[in-house]
Specification:
single chain; 330 residues; alpha/beta; TIM Barrel; 9 helices; 35% helix; binds zinc ion
């Protein structure tokens, strides 16, 4: 299986500072890249890749150059209608928040007609604007944004998702059927994902063929979930890696021996050993089991959180168990 580390910049613990400055961002990802190269990790997903507060384009470019020199791909997180678009936070025309401040008609709405906002993480100083999934103007904006992103950093791929931040309640969006996979928290829309992501990915791949593109499905790969999601994946290019969650909390598996990938490529998303799931834990048994079941289901990629340094003993053991079990076949 190809191996990927998935990270949020603000949770990185490789160096001090949680990526709150240019120095911290560059140091965190320099150390993570060096370790990724030692562990045979093919790529690092970075959510919060572009923020003015940690050096914007210049720092992101240095992170990419360092990674490419070490044979590690950087896959920025790209949020469609959420999470800042291609530029997570800052005074850039490619920041969705900046765009929506000037194009209120393209912003998602709450039921009372007020503009929809999303506040993440809880420590963030302010909420971010959310895009309306019915806006065609935004599709042009995202397409151009992806061109800018992939060419500016000579990217070899990206991670893209249709946000899990709640549903737009404007008249057009409300009139549409919306199928959600999220069992708790804010609902998502597979219908919006299937309508919006494939044309954007196809466009990006036409400009830069061969890129590695990961798509978040927000669900496990149990036979029941696969049956729900599969029809929405038909319009995607076949080279895309669809991400399936191994478990919603360590050990509560959402993959079984009967699970089968409905797409040519897929990624076992192992959401373990990070702040989101209770901090550092020894999760080697579940990690091995997830990769074993993932391979049995036909998945050819695996991701795990890469936010903790491999100087931490439990984390190092988890990374080793993950690497070894990803190598069992294929
Ligand atoms: Zn809408």
């Amino acid at each position: 299986m190809k191996k990927v580390w998935w990270t949020w910049d603000v949770r990185m613990r490789w160096a001090a500072g949680f990526c709150s400055s240019k120095e911290s961002f560059e140091a965190n990802y320099a150390l993570a890249v060096d370790a990724a190269s030692r562990h045979g990790v093919d790529a690092i997903v970075i959510w919060g890749f572009l923020r003015d507060s940690h050096g914007g384009v210049d720092s992101a470019r240095r992170v990419c150059e360092h990674a490419h020199a070490h044979g590690v791909m950087i896959l920025p997180g790209v949020g469609i209608d959420a999470y800042g678009g291609v530029y997570h936070e800052g005074n850039s025309p490619w920041s969705l928040d900046t765009y929506l401040a000037e194009h209120g008609q393209d912003q998602a709405q709450n039921a009372d007609g007020s503009p929809m906002l999303h506040h993440w993480p809880p420590t963030a100083k302010r909420a971010r604007r959310v895009g309306c999934p019915s806006s065609e103007a935004l599709m042009t904006y995202y397409r151009d944004g992806l061109d800018w992103l992939t060419s500016t950093f000579e990217l070899r791929g990206f991670f893209i998702e249709q946000g899990d931040v709640g549903l737009c309640q404007c008249l057009q969006c409300s009139a549409r059927k919306r199928t959600s996979t999220l069992k708790g928290g804010l609902p998502n829309s597979l219908d919006d994902m299937a309508r919006r992501l494939p044309p954007l990915i196809r466009h990006a791949l036409s400009k830069r063929p061969g890129m590695t593109v990961l798509v978040e499905n927000y669900c496990g790969i149990s036979p029941a979930e696969t049956a729900l999601v599969a029809p929405f994946l038909r319009g995607f290019p076949e080279e895309v890696f669809h991400c399936w969650q191994a478990y919603d909390a360590p050990g509560r598996f959402e993959i079984t021996a009967e699970s089968r990938s409905p797409a040519l490529h897929g990624c076992m998303a192992i959401r373990s050993n990070n702040d989101f799931v209770g901090g550092e834990i020894d999760d080697r048994d579940n990690i091995r089991q997830a990769n074993r079941l993932g391979q049995q289901a036909g998945l050819d990629m695996t991701y795990i959180y890469g936010e903790y340094p491999d100087e931490w003993p439990k984390t190092a053991a988890n990374y080793r168990a993950w690497s070894e079990s990803a190598r069992l076949s294929r």
